[in-house]
Amino acid sequence: MLNFKQILYFSFLFLLLNASHTLCHLKELQPKEPCSDEKQMEVNTTQEVNPKKSDAGKQMEVNTTKELKPKKSDDGKQMEVNTTQESKPKKCDDGKQMEVNTTQESKPKQSDVGKQMEVNTTQESKPKQSDVGKQMEVNTTQESKPKKSDAGKQMEVNTTQESKPKKCDDGNQMEVNTTQESKPKQSDAGKQMEVNTTQESKPKESDVGKQVKVNATQAQHSELQFMKWVSFVGKLKHTSFKAAKNKVTPSFFLTVDKNGALGDFTCIQDAIDSLPIINLVRVVIKVHAGVYTEKVSIPATKSFISIEGAGAEKTIIQWGDTAQTIGPNGMPLGTFGSATFAVNSPYFIAKNITVKNTAPVPPSGAVGKQAVAFRISADTASLVGCKFLGAQDTLYDHLGRHYYKDCYIEGSVDFIFGNGLSMFENCAVHAISGAIGAVTAQARKSILDASGFSFVNCKVTGSGALYLGRAWGAFSRVVFAHTYMDNIIIPKGWYNWGDPSREMTVFYGQYKCSGAGANHAGRVSWSRELTDEEAKPFISLTFIDGSEWVNM
Questions:
Q1: How far apart (Å, rounded) are the C-alpha atoms in residues 468 and 509?
Q2: With a threshold of 0.70, does the pTM exceed it?
Q3: Which of 37, 65, 429, 530 is most buried when burial is the number of CB atoms within 10 A of its CB?
């Protein structure tokens, strides 16, 4: 039998145990602190989990035997959780709860305004116990695809993101910043969740148009299209020149004679100076037989001038300046200023005259000995039955479209040079070089430059060893067609001006040429024997748009 004291002792102990149990129960029923978005995930780390689907995109709640309160980070902020995800539970074969030892699959819900990116996430989680048995490691692989927005604008995401949670203290919650790259850190008490996330996203096409991918293949395609365009433009009339409106019917005549009594003027320059500053009608200046030792220049504003001689053998205009000759301003004239006859106005016509620079043939390698006989620095010039005599740099075909027919051109080095667009038809080209010389030095600087020389039905003769051309310009262009070449032509035919890179850009060709010097077998590899189709643009007046203005 228990005495009264023992009954009181056991009663007190029973009440004490009940009070302790009640306090523990009340503590468990105490409400949890809400997270920043008022929707919190409860995580219990047993073997079986029963996920629930939220009504409006709330977060999945996972109930387990242990209830974990959200931890606070060092600065007192809660973990930011995206609450727009909607979880889909998986069913086991027996209809019971899904065991989350391997994989959780979740689908995010679209926002109310329809503009949120849809993220399809596959999460693989594995519970892991820390040293105290309380840590869970979650390794998650997320594969997301952005959704097309209502406005058809798409976010292109081609990144791989790794998330790195921050380290927590004992009673504080981990703050997760998931911007670009994060790696898991372990908490001081081993209670932190490690999240390693790899996101792969694929952009979709927008509603208003397909996305253009810029890559090396497209760059090559663009280059190919550009070259096709260049080829197309090359077949058109030369757009760098305006439409030519020549005036061939004479409106006025002047005569020049060494005997003043037989002509209006005794000097050619005086006749030119007598014309209005701006001349807009065809003026024919007839130059009678004789040798006219003078320097002639036609200014740019005096167009439509014709010079007609009594014959190339009878009417001769000559002077002897070189590039190093000192001019009126006390400075050397240079190649440009050394010309005996200079034309700066369009629609010039010369017939049956000889223009000569009397400077002697310079020794090989001489400096400052360029001596121009005739310089044409204007568009639409026709020269018929004329002779151009000199040594180095005889004919300066500076710029513009020009037509030489039945002319004779003599020189030693680069004696037909410049950046004009010119055709030489039935012309005689004669070299007087004692050593190595060159017929042409064409100065085309760009693939879009409308310039080049074409020799059709010509003859190349003379002395010395001769190149057909030297690449004065990086895109130099010269063609010889149906031309006789004497054995003075160097077998290589062409010279790159000491710059091998020009071999890739110049255009040097032959077409059905004849003579001992025309053998193409020994030519440099960067020249070509043209086919009928390739030669066609170079062997007719269309090369210089001649149908517009060649009308004599």
A1: 10
A2: no
A3: 429
Are the C-beta atoms of residues 219 and 200 closer than 8 Å to each other?
no
**Contact assessment for residue 287 and residue 309, using Cβ atoms and an 8 Å cutoff:** yes
Note the pLDDT tens digit of each residue in 461-487: 999 999 999 999 999 999 999 999 999
> What length does the chain have?
552
Give residue-wise pLDDT tens across range 166-213.
444 444 443 434 334 444 344 443 444 443 444 444 445 444 445 545
Grade residue 225 by pLDDT with cuts at 50, 70 and 90: low
Measure Cα distances from 275 to 296, 300, 494, 528 in Å.
14, 13, 44, 48
By the 10 Å C-beta count (0-12 exposed, 13-18 middle, 19+ buried), 363 is classed as exposed
Do strands 48-49 and 98-99 pair parallel, antiparallel, or not at all (unpaired)? antiparallel
**DSSP-derived secondary structure for 409-460:** EEESEEEEEES-EEEEES-EEEEEEEEEEEEEEE---STT---EEEEES-EE
How far is the C-alpha of 378 from the C-alpha of 343, rounded, in Å? 7
Q: Residue with structure tokens 């305004």?
A: 113
pLDDT in tens, 534-550: 999 999 999 999 988 99
Structure tokens at 261: 């009594």
For residue 468, with 0-12 CB atoms within 10 Å meaning exposed, 13-18 middle and 19 or more buried, which class applies? buried
Token pair of 36, please? 């920043």
Q: Which domains does the chain have, with CATH numbers?
A: 252-549 (2.160.20.10)
10 Å CB burial of residue 215 (0-12, 13-18, 19+) is: exposed
Question: Which of 301, 377, 391 is closest to 336 using CA atoms?
Answer: 377
Say if residue 25 is exposed, middle or buried (CB neighbours under 10 Å; 0-12, 13-18, 19+). Answer: exposed
Q: In sequence order, what are the beta bridge partners of 292?
A: 317
Rounded distance between C-alpha atoms, residue 230 and residue 447, angstroms: 8
- Strand, coil or helix: 127: coil
Active site residues: 393, 414
